[in-house]
Amino acid sequence: MIDLHCHTNYSDGSAGPIEILDQAIGLGLDALAFTDHDTLEGYDCAKDEAQARSFDLLCGVELSTHFPSSTRSVHLLGYFASDPGECFRAWLGGLQEGRRLRNVALLLRLRELGMDISWDELEAIGKKQMGRPHFAKLMLDKGYVASIPEAFHRYLAEGGLAWVDRDEPALEEALARVINAGGVASLAHPVRINRNPSDLHLLLAVLAQQGLEAMECFHPEHTPADTQLLLGLADKFDLAATGGSDFHGSYKPDVKLGSGRGDLNISAAVLDDLRERFAKNRSLPDSHAAPAYQLKVS
Ligand code: AMP
Ligand code: FE
Ligand code: FE
Ligand code: ZN
Fold first, then answer.
1. Does residue 103 have a pLDDT over 80?
2. Least C-beta-crowded within 10 Å: which of 20, 60, 266, 280?
3. Which domain covers residue 76, as residue numbers?
């Protein structure tokens, strides 16, 4: 069993990379990918330890991207067989700046709404890169909400009292960045975008043409019918069918590493498919990697 979607406390998971690595080894997982939001720091921190313990830890990232017709963020997973390099890392650094500004605006908004919360208190929870789950946890700890879902529903989610929009890269730019860094891009939990088969078909036709090579077919938020639909579409567009628990530790207490809500069991064969794609991309001339979207050089 493998798990290709997991968050450490370098983004919005509650557990540290080494603690999660210990858990994965204890559970007997064959492989694990760290896919923190917009950062590789969790992976960087654990990669040597994983190698020393002969554990297959993959370098991954989950990018929050802007989808033209919607105000909702579309999440794109990137997986890398080797280091994605300085250009990609510098780009991630820029995304984190945008997040920091959003976090300041969000804190100010919550204070305007009468909540006595400070940046220092947030940093004590967030450690590295703060996300909305850290705000939710602090609001819960201070008694402003009764649960994390309530914090999102009333305040933090789109349409909530403290909703703050964030600058995000366009989906096609994120896709191009992953490909240019030698990675394989996988569309994360696609049912959050749409559950309609013909709408998903339309979207995938464009994304596959722009270089999307995988799609997250296995995820705790997918019903069995969703999974079947997504596997059919993955087959149709020659996408690797990836999957993972989207583990966030205590921020999503019902989701376990590896098994999700209990019924996730992703075969190691999924990883073989990904690795074949890594190898194929490396053996192709550079022109293959040039996506339809041209990166803007400033
Ligand atoms: P951010 O990247 O800071 O905008 O926060 C997004 C993260 O918040 C997601 O990756 C989830 O971990 C979490 N999240 C988003 N919506 C909800 C929700 N309704 N309930 C709980 N967690 C959520
Ligand atoms: Fe998250
Ligand atoms: Fe996500
Ligand atoms: Zn995730």
1. yes
2. 280
3. 2-94+167-283
Say if residue 116 is in the same domain as residue 236: no
| 143: helix, strand or coil | coil
pLDDT in tens, 14-71: 999 999 999 999 999 999 999 999 999 999 999 999 999 999 999 999 999 998 766 6
**H runs (alpha helix) in 155-217:** 171-180, 197-209
For ligand 1, the distance from its centroid to the CA atom of residue 28, given in whole angstroms, is: 28
Instruction: Mark the residues whose beta carbon lies below 5 A from ion ligand 4.
Output: 62, 246
CA distance 118 to 164: 17
Residues with CB under 6 A from ligand 1: 12, 37, 64, 131-133, 148-149, 152, 157, 248
What is the rounded distance in angstroms from the CA atom of residue 34 to the CA atom of residue 30? 14
Which one of 39, 97, 101, 132 would you pick to mutate in the ligand 1 pocket, going by the greatest count of ligand atoms within 8 A of its CB? 132
Q: Are residues 150 and 268 in the same domain?
A: no
In this structure, is residue 292 part of a structural domain?
no
pLDDT of residue 5 exceeding 90: yes
Domain end (from 156, 176, 196):
156
Pocket test for ligand 1, best of 7, 10, 12 (most atoms within 8 A of CB): 12
Atom 14, ligand 1: residue with shortest CA distance: 133
Q: Are 182 and 282 in contact (CB under 8 A)?
A: yes
191/31 Cα distance (integer angstroms)? 25
pTM for the model: 0.93
Q: Do 73 and 180 belong together in one domain?
A: yes
Residue 293 lies in a domain: no
List pLDDT tens digits, range 107-160: 999 999 999 999 999 988 887 888 999 999 999 999 999 999 999 999 999 899
Q: Which atom of ligand 1 is nearest to the CA of 7?
A: 12
User: Which CATH number fits the domain that encloses residue 139?
Assistant: 1.10.150.650
